[in-house]
Structure formats: structure tokens, C-alpha cells
Amino acid sequence: MGTSFRIRGVVIDTRPHKDQDAIITILTPQHGLLSATVPGARKHSSRLASMATPPIVADMVLSDSKGFYYLKEGEAVESFRGLYDSFEALTCASHILEVVKDTAVDPDSSQLLYPLLLYVLYDLSKHPKKYRQIVAAFEWRVMDALGFAFDLNECDCGKPDEMPTRAFSFSRCRLYCANIGCVAKAKEYRFISIGCVEALRYIREAPLERLSAFRAEKYVLDDLCAVTHQYLCERLEKNYDKLSLLDTLPPQ
Ligand SMILES: [Zn+2]
To answer: CATH second-level architecture of 4-78?
Structure first.
């Protein structure tokens, strides 16, 4: 066996491997994403099975054998139990994990995404009913972390109209007012309420532990979820569709 080392990380993905094993993906602040085989993870008797049940934060000992990592020991630090009481929160968590897996591609992005992911998962497991706010806040902050920041300044025409709406331009990555000339510049856009603009500004500036601590009327939240999700999908050029499962649920 090769050398062993100890890490703390969050397991964000798992897939079956051979008959009994699993390969997990671990996000760490220092090493970015690591893949490791969990021997026997799919046996009922396995003491390591919980390590192959994302999301989980754990202290782990990995051994390095010819460039492949094997999990030798794992101890849970946080397993986000509250997620399992809510189909909505669990669905949001799987969406969030997918985004992180796609975007934590280098040490810089991993360092930024690690604390964001932990706070958001913790928030979801504690406050599953706030899942729409939490997932929108995550999507918006991820865009900032990855360098896709949107310009939330007022329309640059100098005399924005008094309407309580702004055009959120996906093609220009900035806001325009509803004046005809301004909207024409917005190209591909969606009108959002001023309340939504305020929520977007709040999320950008909020400390992580207060990320979802804003009040929003339903129509504001509808705007917010629509634009953060579309903005994320367009910038990352991928149709993240796990959340569409929630559209099939009866309204609460
Ligand atoms: Zn304008």
C-alpha cells in the first residue's frame, strides 16, 4: 500500500464501482476535487457505507496507490440529516452538488465554493421550507465566485423610468429600465420586480451565514428563482434540470 494522508472534505457524488465498491467525489478546500474508491461501500455491513452517501462532511484517511486513492477510514462531521425530511430540500441539494461538481475545477474555485456549499447545505437541512430562497441565493453567489458577476447598477441611461420593474438582460449581464430605447438594448431579457433587484443585491453582499435571511413575497421569489436559474444555465452552458421535478408537486 502507498502513503496515507488525512483530509476533511465534503462528499458530493458517488457512483457504483465493480460489485461492492463505490467511487466518491470529495470537494476539499486545499486539493479541489478528489476521487476515491470506497472498498465494500455497497455491502450492508460496511462501516464505510455512509461515506458514499452524499452530501456528507467527513474526516477521511485516503491511501494513495499508484495515483489512485482508496478510502481507509472515514468519520462523519456533518451529515445534513434534515435534508431527508424534505423531498424539496433533497432535490435542491442534488442540484447544488451537481453544479459544484461541474465548477470546482481548480484550487481557486474549490476554495471559494467549499464554504459556500457547506453553509448552503446546512441552511437547507435546518430550514428545508426555505428551499427556493436558498437555492436562488446559492446560484447567484456561485456566479460571483466563478467570475460571472452580473452588473446590478441602475440602468445607464441616466433617467431610469419610475416603473417598479427592471429588465434583467441575460445577454448584456446588466439591468435596464423599461424605457423603450433601454429595453431594446437589453436584447434577451426578463422583466423582474424592484423587490427582486433588491434581493439580488442583498444576496451578493450578505455574509454566508445570512445568505437566505431575507424576506421575499411570492412574486419576488418567482422572479428571483427564474432569473438566477436561467443565468446559471446560460453562463455554464448546461441545462440543469433536477429542479424541474419540483414543478410537478402540488403548490404548498
Ligand atoms: Zn434606462
So the answer is: Beta Barrel (2.40)
